[in-house]
Design brief:
With 356 residues, this protein is α+β, with helices and mostly antiparallel strands. The protein has 7 helices and 19 strands. Strand 6 and strand 7 form a beta hairpin. It is globular, with a radius of gyration of 23 Å.
C-alpha cells in the first residue's frame, strides 16, 4: 500500500529558493486566511546556540531578516499547494531557557503592503467617470500585482477616493455599501458577493470527514427591516427606501431568513440609516439591501475542523450534511487555518449562513 499521500508535507522558500535545512528545523507551520484581514503565516523553528559566540543559529541568521520574501506550500508528499506568498514581519525567541530555544516567525501576505499604501500620489490608480466599485477593485488588484475575483456592481455617481485613505480602507468601505466581502487569498483580490449562488468546492459529512463541528445560532442583533433616508442631490425631496423582511440574498431557497426569524419570534427591530450620501433612489435601495444582508449573514455560524485539506480557502461555498435539518446545508467559508505540527495536518475553519 502506498501511504505517501497520507504523509503531511510542506515546503518553504526564502526569496524564491527552497530551504531544506530550514524546513528540517521547523517544528510547526500555520497559515491563517480570513475575509476582511490579510493572510498570515507563523512557523516555529527549533534553534541552537553556539556556546562560544552565544549566537543563535536561526534567530541570528540573515535568512530570517525582517522583510524577507517567504512562500509556503502545504499538502501531502504526493501533492503540494501554494497557500501564501508573504514577507517576514516579526521574530521572537524563547531565549535561554531550559528547553530547546525556539524562534517564532510571523509574516503577512505580500499584497498587504501594496493595499495599505496611500491612494493618492503620482503612482495612484486613475479613476474614470464611469468606473464602478468593481472596476476600481480590478484596477487596485492590477496595481498590487494580484489576480482579481470581482463581482459586478451598479454604476452610481462618479466615485472618488479621499486623500490619506489606503486602497484597502477604500475597498472595505465600498464593500459595506454593496454588501460585499473584500480580502486577499492565494494571490487574488476578492471583491465579491458572499451570497452569490455557485458550485460547492467541498462536500462534508458528519461521521465521514468532519473531525469537529460546533454550530451557533445568533439572534442578538437581528433586524426585521432596514430603512435608508437621504437627500437626492438634484431634488428638493428626501427619499426613503426600505429592505423588508425576507429580501436577503441567500445560498438556499425555501428556508427561513434571519429577518423572517426576527419577525416570527418578535426579537428583532427596525434599523434606520439617516443622512446617507446617495445619488439616486436605487442607490438608497441598494444600501438598505446591503445592510440587511450584512446583519443577517451571521445567523448561523460554525467552527469546524477536518483532516488537512489545502484546497479549502475563504470565500468559497461548501456543503455540510449529517448534522440535522437545522444545521445541514450550504455555508460560506469565512476563515481557514492550516496547521502542520507534531499532531499531523489539520484544517480548521469558520463558516456561516443567513437561513435556517
Amino acid at each position: 500500500m502506498n501511504l505517501s499521500k497520507y504523509a503531511p508535507e510542506f515546503k518553504i522558500y526564502i526569496d524564491g529558493e527552497a530551504k531544506e535545512d530550514l524546513r528540517r528545523a521547523i517544528t510547526s507551520v500555520q497559515i491563517s486566511e480570513q475575509t476582511g484581514n490579510p493572510s498570515e503565516f507563523t512557523f516555529a523553528v527549533a534553534d541552537t546556540v553556539n556556546p562560544k559566540t552565544q549566537e543563535f543559529v536561526w534567530f541570528d541568521s540573515p535568512l530570517l531578516d525582517i522583510g524577507r520574501k517567504v512562500k509556503i506550500e502545504i499538502g501531502y508528499s504526493t501533492r503540494l499547494v501554494e497557500i501564501i506568498v508573504g514577507e517576514i514581519k516579526s521574530l521572537s525567541t524563547s531565549g535561554f531557557s531550559g528547553d530547546v530555544p525556539k524562534v517564532t516567525v510571523v509574516g503577512y501576505d505580500l499584497s498587504h503592503r501594496h493595499l495599505t499604501e496611500q491612494s493618492t500620489g503620482p503612482d495612484s490608480i486613475q479613476i474614470d467617470r464611469n468606473d464602478t466599485y468593481s472596476t476600481i477593485a480590478k484596477k487596485i488588484a492590477g496595481k498590487a500585482k494580484l489576480k482579481d475575483d470581482v463581482d459586478d456592481t451598479t454604476l452610481y455617481s462618479p466615485i472618488t477616493i479621499k486623500k490619506n485613505v489606503t486602497y484597502y480602507d477604500f475597498l472595505k468601505d465600498a464593500a459595506k455599501r454593496v454588501g460585499f466581502e473584500v480580502f486577499v487569498s492565494r494571490g487574488s483580490l476578492h471583491f465579491s458577493n458572499p451570497r452569490k449562488p455557485k458550485e460547492t468546492t467541498l462536500d462534508l459529512r458528519w461521521g465521514k470527514n468532519i473531525i469537529q463541528f460546533t454550530p451557533s445560532i445568533n439572534t442578538a442583533d437581528l433586524v426585521t427591516e432596514v430603512e435608508v433616508r437621504g437627500h437626492l442631490p438634484d431634488s428638493k425631496n428626501n427619499t426613503s427606501q426600505v429592505a423588508r423582511s425576507g429580501s436577503e440574498d441567500t445560498l438556499e431557497e425555501g428556508k427561513t431568513t434571519a429577518s423572517e426569524l426576527a419577525v416570527k419570534s418578535g426579537i428583532g427591530k427596525k434599523e434606520t440609516i439617516e443622512d446617507s450620501v446617495i445619488d439616486t433612489e436605487q442607490e438608497a435601495a441598494d444600501l438598505a439591501k446591503a445592510r440587511l444582508n450584512i446583519i443577517s449573514d451571521n445567523l448561523v455560524t460554525v467552527s469546524a475542523s477536518i483532516v488537512g485539506t489545502p484546497e479549502l480557502s475563504p470565500g468559497t461555498i461548501i456543503s455540510i450534511d449529517g448534522v440535522g435539518k437545522r444545521f445541514s446545508g450550504k455555508y460560506y467559508v469565512a476563515s481557514v487555518t492550516h496547521t502542520i505540527d507534531a499532531n499531523g495536518y489539520t484544517t480548521a475553519f469558520n463558516v456561516r449562513k443567513n437561513v435556517i
